[in-house]
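Title: Prediction job returns without error message
Component: structure pipeline
Severity: low
Priority: P3
Assignee: unassigned

Description:
Job completed but the reporter wants confirmation the result is attached to the right record. Sequence as submitted:
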Amino acid sequence: MIAIGAEYQIEFGDACHRFRGVDSHNARIGWTTMRTKSLTSEQMEARVARFNKLQTYQRQNFEAHNIPPGAVEKVAARRVYPVMAPADYQGRSAGAPVKGPRGLIVSIAECEPGNGPGLHRHLNTVENFFCLSGRFEIAWGDRGEHRLVLKPLDMISVPRGENRSFRNVSNELGRLLVMIVPETDEQVDPISYAPSLAKEIEKEYGKTAVEGLQKIGFKFEDEPSA
């Protein structure tokens, strides 16, 4: 063991000597050590989303398209906080504070006990739910006949075109981290609901509310046959 240790010390010493020699050579010919270009504190802060500063897309879309928050709640969770979206994303999460890479839209859905959107389909995207708090029943199928429950730290990935709904079935405020991934190059996320819901929204909030929802990606198509 002593012999091995001595040999190691000699080899390590030689390596250090060679490294110093290379470093000295680089200095003589004007080379400098390569360094990465770091963001400034201000640039990095622009890539941060502070939860206490997030605005719901109910509020953002009311201001941008004059859609009553109650009408948005008919097709979404009680509160949805856009977190990150591509700069060229067109839709309800376009106001996300962090402008990220194409192909990923991140938001937080917040639901009181019993709250959640009805059955709907995402036509171009995969929707991934990661349970942060509470417990969420995820239903799928033409009539929502299949169901499972997500507990905190559970996740599910729902493919495009599949009918789905989610509802907080706990007795506490529930939050889902929602990650939407477009499967086409187009950075949009059209969602399909039954036309009967459009009639309900129009009756309560007027035709302009339905038209506003259509502008941000909500469609009202034929209901599945019985």
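Comment from assignee: result matches the submitted record. The chain has a mean pLDDT of 85.
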